[in-house]
Amino acid sequence: MYKNHSHTASQHTALLLTGGGARAAYQVGVLKAIASTLPRNSPSPFKIINGTSAGAINATALSCYASCFHLGVKKLEWVWRNFSTNQVYRTDFITVFGHIIGNMLSSFQSDYINHPPASLFDNEPLRGLLKHVLDLQRIDRNISLGHLKALSITASSYSSGDSVAFFQANNILPWQRAKRRGENTTINIEHLMASSAIPMVFPSIKIRKGYFGDGSIHQHAPLSPPIHLGANKIFIIGVDQPSDTKYFGFQPQYPGISTIAGHLLDTIFSDTLRADIERLERVNRTVSLLPSREKHQELKRVETYVINPSENFNAIANQHYQDLPIAIKTLLRMIGVKKHSESSLVSYLLFEKAYTRHLIEIGYKDGLAKQDEIKHFLSLP
């Protein structure tokens, strides 16, 4: 009885995991809360899984274990609960400052020389971690067995300025819209590296003949990929934290580079999603007003459910600031990021287990608090 219900209810139910660097640990807590409501051997309640930036990595991990949702969440939690920053980017003094000096020297070279990608940090360790923990061949197997309908990973093209949803699925055609498109492909590590390449922080990634960066940069319509892949319900786990009112109003001095950088990241990772949900709600209202005979086949009602953190990640990151490697704290201090600075930059870069475990617990608490609403939305028994 359960399997038939789950299969019917989830065929067009999508999961959307947004970006946010280390903040994506929060998503794991919410997923853990959902898993706690399901039988231990149940498949994923989401047949369409979509991710951007760090959310793309979480989405891919879940897709690898779509046949057993509990196991996928458990493995994902193990990685996030035991994180250290040097698993994501290099943190020793020689490499950190050698990397920056190398970027500076390359700027003096001739334009025709193929320069290495410029970035604040070298995230080559992340590639090694992904290769170690992800068995990407399982994705195709889960699609063939019906445990998964589609996986999409969004990246931003620096060559064309398009938002590109790389998706792996059977019998779904690519799409093309203004400044966004979907490409059917086999998801690999390079797609994940590109989607999670936070601008200026991590280097861009070459895929075929183009260069790509964080999927949130050009993602003006975050809901587009799951809708194109057939979703009529989208469950969204965001990282849009509650506002901290102490920074509103009068400021005695100009905002520094670090503060502005933090605001830019907040805008990239949060604002477009809110705007797209508002557009979808207007479309839903329009569809509801049309007589059934006049409804166009491209117009359909799509329900969304959004869960965001109940606590401020900037304040939590400040509590764990001392856990950052010394070289990283030194570098951040050079651009004005200190323990109690207003910048949200640390909350994105702090891949230390004390911080990620804290975020997982918040996600788990938030998920349990809204357990009844979530079960109703996902049509879980």
Automatic annotation (TrEMBL):
Residues 15-227 form the PNPLA domain. It comes from Pseudoalteromonas ulvae. The active site is at S53 (nucleophile), D214 (proton acceptor). PROSITE patterns: PNPLA (PS51635). Gene3D superfamilies: Cytosolic phospholipase A2 catalytic domain (3.40.1090.10). A motif (GXSXG) lies at residues 51-55. Pfam families: Patatin. Keywords: Hydrolase, Lipid degradation, Lipid metabolism. GO terms for molecular function: hydrolase activity. InterPro entries: Acyl_Trfase/lysoPLipase, NTE, PNPLA_dom. This is Patatin. One of its GO terms (biological process) is lipid catabolic process.
